[in-house]
Amino acid sequence: MEHTGPADEVDRIVDAWHHVRPDLELEPLTVFSRVSRLARHLDLARRTAFARHSLETWEFDVLSALRRAGEPFRLSPGTLVTQTLVTSGTMTNRIDRLESRGFVQRHRSPDDRRGVLVELTEEGLARVDAAMSDLLDIEAKVLTALSPTERPQLAALLRTVTAQFDE
């Protein structure tokens, strides 16, 4: 198959498939194998960034949901479940663990006597902000392979492909 630019590992894989199965339309493989490889590299980079701040990926997910809520950085456990795509039992366990580390605290909901709100502590806020800054530095370095005009183009193309899963 023809390539533009230097060949990469995906090109070698696709070429091998083309050789043994020339009847297959391999275009999806040229795209999604690269997406998959990039996802593995980004997952490792994220884990590394979070580890520098003594956070697990799931901890960052919960803390960042609270941070994005804006002041006073409070959400209900149900909202956290929705935003992090875990079960309520899992979220209860996560909140317990984050509370034991001093990153969040529970408060009674002023609107519902039985309800609870989860709030970032100062330590949780500092930790998630530092991890987010580190993460963005790492991800910005990945994007240096693209020109400033190519970056928004890639974001738009990926949005188009992923939008079908957000419906």
UniProtKB/TrEMBL annotation:
Keyword Transcription regulation among UniProt keywords: yes
Pfam families linked: MarR_2
Residue ranges constituting the HTH marR-type domain according to the UniProt record: 28-163
PROSITE patterns named in the record: HTH_MARR_1, HTH_MARR_2
SUPFAM superfamilies linked: Winged helix' DNA-binding domain
Transcription regulation listed as a keyword: yes
Keywords: DNA-binding, Transcription, Transcription regulation
InterPro entries recorded: HTH_MarR-typ, MarR/SlyA-like, Tscrpt_reg_MarR-type_CS, WH-like_DNA-bd_sf, WH_DNA-bd_sf
Matching Gene3D superfamilies: Winged helix-like DNA-binding domain superfamily/Winged helix DNA-binding domain
Protein name per the record: MarR family transcriptional regulator TamR
Gene that this sequence comes from: tamR
